[in-house]
Design brief:
heterodimer, A: alpha+beta, 12 helices, B: mainly alpha, Rna Polymerase Sigma Factor, Chain: A, 0% strand
């Protein structure tokens, strides 16, 4: 292009330069003025590949991912709040035991307190063996009290756990206990105490111990140690809860089926042993032999008596539930935060921490799932991009 | 656009209507780029595709893509025109790839013939010879000539569009011009 011939050639090339139609340029100018609105790409669908670029899908995909995480967090949090305090292994234990029906909103703690079946096997006389279930039922305020009373009156299920019916239906031996703290004015302590007696008698219960104090708020109060037939425990608790403002309620159950069954089996073995010894005694011809058998027989009978007493004690524990009722004065609903009855800053921070922890866990799980998928998508995109570039080079070669 | 077959004069043309809202600096810069490059982009794409309707579609798509990506333009990586022609090149090559045929860079014969009626016979014959010589060049060589003489890019801009060095672009262009001149001489 340094020579006149090159200049002439360049001039000829420029003269061959294609020019757009005026109609096209006018239309394009209009679109430029409008900010190039998106067109339908019927004629050249390949040119619309930009609409399918991953970058354009990033925002909705990210939004969907965040939404999924939020939903998963909400679901997990809801489930967790419903199962709060329930260790995972408890469910395995509950599978073997009458599974208590949980009421929403009533936090409960179920903890194995014994060694389970293994512990029961080697503790025939141990009455503490078994599975213990505890339920904290914070009920604060008149509304809660009314609700509790209403539900208890209508269905007899003021207690959050319906272990009783399940346990009885499956012939399980379950020891139950409960503690109710009622808040009252000092002037009402006497009346409340009288109503406690009435409720106990109405449900064929027994007042083991009772004490009543009069005085200023904080000093006045009452305490009752009761035995209530387990079959009527729920009704009795509902009636007791209706006496005054319920500050707190705690229920616990201990599955004593294993020691009960084991003790019964040992009792049968002991009876068989005694029968065998009696047969030996009849057949004994020598005095020394007779005396030895009689000594062994006495020892076995004592053993059987202990077993029988133990079994009766177990049955009594299953039949009668221990209930502790305390009537306190000078206690307001705000004071009951220690019992978990109110929701304050600490609880809010705790809940926030739990939600964040759940969100983090869900995010980790989501990343574990989405990470490989994103990696594959990235590799596919890079491969596609490389392939497109190679094809573009091939077009001109 | 005026009917002048020469290069766009850029800022002299009033191509974009006034925006209702005060445009941002980026929009103004893109507006200037659009004004100065519209016909050049079309000329380059039309030369590459040899299909006027397809060239119009690709040109429109080029500016649409460039408009969408205008905020991602990095001045440190090259000139705006080179960036724009890179987009146009990819769009044109995609179109060619979709069609499954190679680029044919010469101008449409109808155009040449129509212009020939208006010009003297000697010039018309010469242009036909150049057009025929262009068809005998390799596609890559025809693209170089299209970028240089149809789009009016400088060697540095051509180098950026093709992703090669400026001296390399100049060398390739010189070779293409030499082959084209030889082809014209042979045709003559």
């Amino acid at each position: 292009m340094d020579t006149p011939r090159d200049d002439r050639l360049a001039e000829e090339l420029r003269a061959l330069r294609p020019t757009p139609r005026p109609e096209f340029t006018a239309e394009l100018d209009e679109r430029a003025a409008a900010g190039f609105p998106r067109r339908s790409r019927l004629r050249f669908p390949s040119l619309g590949s930009g609409s399918l670029q991953p970058r354009r899908l990033l925002l909705p995909a990210g939004g969907l991912a965040v939404l999924a995480i939020v939903i998963a967090t909400a679901v997990v949090s809801t489930n967790q709040s419903g199962d709060e305090g329930v260790p995972a292994e408890s469910y395995a234990l509950l599978d073997q035991k009458p599974q208590p029906e949980r009421r929403a909103g009533a936090p409960q703690t179920v903890s194995p307190a014994g060694g389970g079946a293994a512990a029961a096997e080697d503790s025939a006389g141990s009455e503490d063996a078994g599975i213990q279930y505890e339920a904290d039922v914070p009920v604060v305020g008149a509304a809660a009290q009314d609700a509790t009373a209403a539900s208890g009156a209508s269905s007899g299920t003021a207690a959050p756990l319906r272990l009783e019916a399940d346990a009885n239906s499956r012939n399980r031996a379950v020891e139950r206990s409960a503690e109710i703290v009622l808040g009252a004015d000092p002037a009402d302590v006497a009346d409340d105490a009288a109503e406690v007696f009435e409720a106990v008698h109405a449900h064929n219960g027994i007042v083991m111990r009772s004490s009543t104090r009069e005085g200023e708020p904080g000093e006045a109060g009452a305490r009752f140690e009761l035995l209530i037939p387990s079959a009527k425990l729920s009704d009795a608790l509902a009636a007791l809860s209706a006496i005054d403002e319920v500050i707190s309620r705690h229920e616990a159950t201990t599955d004593i089926t294993a020691p009960t069954v084991t003790t019964g089996e040992l009792l049968r073995d002991s009876k068989a042993r005694i029968d065998s010894l009696l047969a030996q005694l009849e057949e004994a011809e020598v005095e020394s032999e007779r005396e030895a058998v009689e000594a062994e027989l006495r020892q076995e009978r004592r053993h059987r008596a202990r077993l029988r007493a133990s079994l009766q004690n177990l049955q009594r524990r299953a039949d009668l539930s221990r209930v502790l009722v305390r009537i306190e004065t000078g206690v307001t609903t705000s004071d009951s935060s220690a019992d978990g009855g109110s929701w304050g800053i600490d609880e809010a921070l705790g809940d926030a921490g739990k939600i964040l922890a759940v969100a983090a866990a869900v995010t980790v799980v989501a990343l574990a799932i989405l990470g490989p998928i994103a990696l594959i998508a990235l590799l596919a995109w890079l491969t596609h991009r490389a392939w497109v570039r190679r094809e573009r080079r091939r077009v001109l070669s | 656009m005026d009917s002048d077959p020469g290069r766009s004069t850029g800022m002299e043309q009033t191509l974009v209507a006034e925006a209702k809202d005060a445009p941002r600096a980026g929009d103004l810069a893109f507006d200037r780029l659009y004004r100065s490059s519209r016909d050049d982009v079309y000329a380059y794409v039309a030369g590459l595709l040899r299909d006027a309707p397809a060239a119009e579609e690709v040109t429109a798509a080029t500016f649409e893509r460039a408009y969408r990506k205008r905020n991602r333009f990095d001045p440190e990586r090259g000139e705006p025109r080179a960036w724009l022609f890179g987009i146009a090149r990819n769009a044109a090559l995609d179109e060619l790839r979709r069609r499954g045929r190679q680029a044919e860079l010469t101008a449409e014969p109808a155009d040449v013939e129509s212009k020939a009626f208006e010009e003297d016979a000697e010039r018309s014959e010469r242009r036909l010879a150049v057009s025929a010589a262009l068809e005998r060049l390799q596609p890559r060589e025809r693209e170089l000539i299209a970028l240089k003489f149809f789009a009016g890019l400088a060697n540095a801009e051509i180098a950026q569009v093709l992703g090669i060095g400026e001296s390399n672009a100049g060398t390739k262009l010189h070779r293409a011009m030499t082959k084209l001149r030889e082809a014209c001489d042979g045709h003559a």
